[in-house]
């Protein structure tokens, strides 16, 4: 279907193109690379709207200066090679859509120049995310607003959520960077005429609430406490402690029915933790491959174990490299057993083949050179092979908010075709992979992580994939497990299932 679509004619409204926000510059770069978009730059002048009081804005500016969280303004890429139009309804041509990245109220006068009106992200507000940070919200909502006429006003048409950073100034920058991919994903959906392309949400809500000055003392106290906890954890790790460690647990059932509380637990030796377990049957035995993280080196490697009457017997180290390894997605194809571990630090995908199972492995193929990809999983659905992976393209080293999908030729990864709607999921609660894509009772499921509450691996989701082809991707949440359901833990973030045995990991303080 995507081959039949013409490019969307999109006007991007900026304030000062010579000193734009870094996320604005990144947005222009992505839009320029999108075949689905024909970009026109527009410059508006005037004061931008804000939801905060002058005192709260001053407090945020002070924190920004003290913590040096701000990023310098940058010029728009290729500024001198492009035509830049003034925000004048008599000059701006007829367009399909106008994106307002300026937050200047006068931009509303351009609504009649675009078939789909004006879109504006909530992160355009100079204090976006401030209320979430001050109130310690588990996530910060990012909303996409549409303006078609003064009569209808601004209407919320899409939204997502990102993990809240404990510093308000850092949260602002984080939300803005992540919102870029949320916006471009919505543009791709509109360009591909997904039905419905963009459905208005049933209720209208105000934008992020303004934080109260009365909340500042509580916020300052919480920031100080969080900084103290992080310093203490660093010292604990240096002294041989294991703050935030993962443990493995084994239960019976399915991903939809297992009880995480009654499971048997397996803990790693001192100075390390075990995480990201995957199961595979070989010659009558069930083996487990998992990450062994060393607190001293700050890196992980892959080890193997064997399940024996409810016990996990450690077999030995399987793959070690000079860079961090985790998420050992292991699978059989034909007569061979392969592993696709997480190698984001090596900036490429690596496919390993077992030569002397379970501890002997050789590098079989590489792909996506120069790309940092995390928690990658291959799945054959019908006659097609799909690669699910989490990419990081921001300055926060965040792999938890964007799921990218590729159609591939098979385990060799010789031909990789990106899905036209990439990233197909943009949300800190559901995007990052949490295990093998699997089928059960004729339905297709994807485990994913809930990375909210300021905790990596806070929760585990089972998502049902309802549509998967090169025109669409759609999934829905069918099970959600959090630490509230598993006493003594602060997280649960990975699962794999084989023949009624369920292995997963939990996180402890």
Alpha-beta content class? alpha+beta
Oligomer state equals: single chain
Low-confidence stretches: none
Range of strand content? 35-45%
Mass-distribution shape: globular
| Radius of gyration, whole Å | 24 Å
Mean pLDDT rating = 91
Strand order of the largest sheet: 3-2-1-4-5-6-7
Number of helical stretches of at least 4 residues: 5
**Based on DSSP secondary structure assignment, what is the total number of beta strands?**
28
Topology overview:
Blueprint: E1 8-14, H1 22-33, E2 37-43, H2 54-67, E3 84-86, E4 97-100, E5 118-121, H3 130-134, E6 139-147, E7 154-163, H4 168-191, H5 216-238, E8 246-252, E9 264-266, E10 272-282, E11 285-294, E12 299-308, E13 311-319, E14 326-333, E15 336-342, E16 349-356, E17 360-367, E18 373-381, E19 384-391, E20 402-408, E21 416-418, E22 425-426, E23 438-440, E24 443-450, E25 459-468, E26 473-481, E27 491-498, E28 501-507
Parallel strand pairs: 1-2, 1-4, 2-3, 4-5
Antiparallel strand pairs: 5-6, 6-7, 8-9, 8-28, 10-11, 11-12, 12-13, 14-15, 15-16, 16-17, 18-19, 19-20, 20-21, 20-22, 23-24, 24-25, 25-26, 27-28
